Amino acid sequence: MAAKDELGRRGEELAADFLADQGLVILARNWRCAEGELDIVATDGVDTVVFCEVKTRRGTGFGTPVEAVTQAKRRRIRRLAYLWITSMRPAGWPILRFDVIGILMPDGGGPQLRHVAGAF
């Protein structure tokens, strides 16, 4: 596995564990369709479905991980969320929330996680 893929996988593991520790239930990880992939889909168990984009980087030379979620990426995630909702058909009309988790994993240091709930 390429180092970049391994870094991303580790970041998504940390993000999923973090969301679970916050009381969210993970519904899907790496959900794929013809148009792309959602990193994490979770619920608060009541009425909210959370679509979480995870960005993991070793450093900030190209900006922070959260900054890497551009407007175009946000549009794509919204479109994928619509496709997930229409394919899974959750009961009722859930509230949709879009979060970003940015993780820095510098060489020789521990991970630093930043969760932006309702980022867009």
Describe the protein in words.
The protein is α+β, with helices and mostly antiparallel strands and 120 residues long. The chain has one domain: Trna Endonuclease, Chain: A, domain 1, CATH 3.40.1350. It is built from 2 helices and 5 strands; from the N terminus they run H-E-E-E-H-E-E. The chain has helices at 3-21, 71-88, and strands at residues 25-33, 36-43, 48-57, 95-104, 112-116. It has a 5-stranded mixed β-sheet with strand order 1-2-3-4-5, sandwiched between helices. Strand 4 and strand 5 form a beta hairpin. The protein is globular and about 45 Å long.
Write the layout of secondary structure elements.
Layout: H1 3-21, E1 25-33, E2 36-43, E3 48-57, H2 71-88, E4 95-104, E5 112-116
Parallel strand pairs: 3-4
Antiparallel strand pairs: 1-2, 2-3, 4-5
State the gist of this model:
It is built from 2 helices and 5 strands, in the order αβββαββ. With 120 residues, the protein is α+β, with helices and mostly antiparallel strands.
Domains (count): 1
Summing up helix and strand content along with how strands pair, one would put the structural category as: alpha+beta
CATH architecture: 3-Layer(aba) Sandwich
Mean pLDDT over the full residue set? 95
CATH fold assignment: Trna Endonuclease, Chain: A, domain 1
Low-confidence stretches: none
Please give the number of β-strands. 5
Cross-sheet strand order for the largest sheet: 1-2-3-4-5
Sketch the major β-sheet: 5 strands, mixed
Please estimate the helix content: 25-40%
Task: List the total number of helices.
Answer: 2
Beta-strand proportion = 35-45%
Q: Separation of termini?
A: 32 Å
Quaternary structure type: single chain
The radius of gyration computed from the alpha-carbon positions, rounded to a whole number of angstroms, is 14 Å
Please identify the top-level CATH class: Alpha Beta
Principal-axis shape: globular
